[in-house]
Amino acid sequence: MQLSRFILLVFVGAALVVGAAALIEHESDRPAVGVDHSPAEEPGHVFIAAGPGPAAIECPLTSLPEWNAIWWSQPPRCTLGGGWIQPSTWGSWMWGARSELLVDLDDGGAHDLVIDAKAHPDVAATRQQALTVRVGDVELGPFDIGPTWTQLRVEMPAAALRVGANRITLVPAAAIAPRDVGRGKDYRRFSIGVRKIGVRQAVGAEQSRAAHATPAQIWDEDRGVYAIERPGTLVVPLELPDQARTVDIELSGSRSVDPGAVHGTVSVEDLNRTVVRSRPIELPSNSSHSHIVLEVDDLAGRSVLLSVAAEIEAGRLEVSPPQVTTPSPDTAVRPEAGDAGVVADPPDLIVIILDAARADRFGFAGNRRDTSPNIDRLAATSLIFSRVFALAPYTLCSVPTMITGLSYLDHGVIDHSDVLSPDAVTLAEILRQHGYRTACFTSTPNNSRAKGFDQGYEVFREMWTEQPRRKARRAHVLAGAVAEWLDQVPDDGRPLHLQVHMVPPHAPYDPSDKFDLFTDPGYDGPCDGYFHTLAALDGGSMAPTEACVGHLLDLYDGNLRMADDATEQILNALRRRPRWHNTLVLITSDHGEAFLEHGRTDHNSTVYTEMLHVPFVLHLPADLDVGAVDTDGLATLADIVPTLLHAAGITPPDYPDAVDLLARTRDRESRFMVARTTGPTPTLGLRTSRWSLVLDVSGAGALFDLRSDPHERDNLVFSERERLAGLGLILTSRYERPPQLSLAAGSADITDEERALLETLGYLR
């Protein structure tokens, strides 16, 4: 395959507003969105009305036909917490021990919770279902829930509510897992189906509010302007070109507008609110027109948010689409040709993947336990990148990103039936074209020939084809095979690229006695490190006691210690080679692992830090001078490919979602990443160095300020509504951009050996 076929174009736009991207087709039975214009006809934007919210607040439960449709209504005053499955065309099932809502109220008066619900049929067949509602310290109910759709109205006393965010917890009396009654393999315990849920002012309260009628989309297609007719904030995302100088907008008031009564601010700021440029809105007394110019030289090349916060009492304020000025072609600064970075003796490039290794369990990352003594010693003489994240919390989607430098949005491998396109150009293919010997050793069928991940490798050994499945997943079996192979590789001066993918610390958490160093011998509870325990905790059928979760972490840390020892076996084999002095070693993971930090165990299911944050230890050859490197900025697993190509002296292509981590200058404030969970209706996440946004297909979401809340506990979805909308528009626009590659024809057939090992590893259960 010719390398020239893989020269990718980075989308920078020509100083245009980020418009809504091409729509993704979804299931034909999804309901249409009740709007007059399709998102493709209007510039991406949201108008957030000021003033009191609606008297009736409905929580989003139904999946939308496309992601951009989320922004065709006001940002939600109600969002879902834990205990709900992904929204469908009719609503959502409650599952687990409890389900939560977060509702934003303008006053603390009495409100009614209105629920249209029915008992899950498997529950209704054996027992009476009931629902208890908890609001603050007040418990209401239980209320009977029958097998057919019934509307329940629960009066919530004023004393239990407050102005702002209110947490409402729904506790079912009974729940049942389909697997337990022979109806499939789903281990989650379902309880109640809900097709509508919301909060309304109590009967007799003031019902005159009209804020809910304010459209979020205020684009006047005939005049080509945004039309603001009430107080609020217009949010527009922009992608500034590298040579951007200013952002200009025109403001015009209608005849009925009193210029002296129009106030507000026009602002442009980066995604982290680090650089802000703003100007007041002032309409001259003798004119209804104003021209505002914002200098953005220091924001050039970044994604930014433009906001127009307008206070208008009557009439209509028209805002032109923002225009970005750049230098004329004669005065533009032209980049000089740079050094191609040719390396006389390219280093060996070794990538060791510890499956499901979360970053904070390593000693070099602050874990007081001695979980990784060998990797810690290597880390002491290495670059440690502290903020590296997977783009998906599961192996199948993560590995192609690690070997192509492409996000899943472009490589497209998200499901077990997907195969990486032969048009993809992998790191191994590029290196092989430049004279490298290439080899991969893998212990997981989620990194296999069947998925197309062997492209470019001369040697590709799948351990489950050589050993029984329980032995194949053992870290030392893999390490022994790698070490034996390394000892036999001829010393002919040819550089080597080796990828090693071991299973531990991935579940099952069953370290051998030698590495079971952290468990309490006195623990005699029901929890162990196998998937029936993880499924029971995840599905709500086992109580997550502190002792139970602690025991799981003890076992996980033992698995990590075992993986660390196996890694040292591989490192020792590398040290025996004459080329060790010229060897780069990267130790990382394909995703993290959760222990109920956000109600889930294992991985696959959320885009929170615990499932995405991975270790990234980069040990460089002594002779490789990279200068000052930013090791604290936001980075992703897509960055592996351009970074290793840099180290090999190969100029990396331009990647849409990857950067060279060894580059001397990196703009950390401009970077964002888009993550997804598994499944046909994924949860999406957008992460910058400051913000973490979580969004599902109904529009329910969460927003966290990572500077003050690194553990993602304080949901700011109501207090940062403009930020939620702006980041959400960028997220959905990037998600719906057409992919770079098409998937390979056909599907990945799973062999009996692969199926058995995947079941052992907790997949296909």
Explain how this protein is built.
The chain is of the alpha+beta class and 765 residues long. The protein folds into 3 domains: 55-202, Jelly Rolls; 217-325, Jelly Rolls (Sandwich); 348-760, Alkaline Phosphatase, subunit A. 16% of the residues lie in helices and 25% in strands. A 7-stranded mixed beta sheet has the order 23-32-28-22-27-25-26, sandwiched between helices. Strands 12, 13, 15, 18, 20 and 21 form a 6-stranded antiparallel beta sheet that branches. A 5-stranded antiparallel beta sheet has the order 1-14-19-16-17, with helices on one face. A hairpin with a 2-residue loop joins strand 7 (129-135) and strand 8. Helix 7 (475-488) runs parallel beside helix 9. The longest helix has 30 residues, at 546-575. Mean pLDDT is 87; it is low at 1-40 and 332-340.
Write a brief structural summary.
The protein is α+β, with helices and mostly antiparallel strands.
| Contiguous runs where pLDDT drops below 50 for at least 5 residues | 1-40, 332-340
Largest β-sheet summary? 7 strands, mixed
Helix amount, in percent? 10-25%
* Tertiary shape: globular
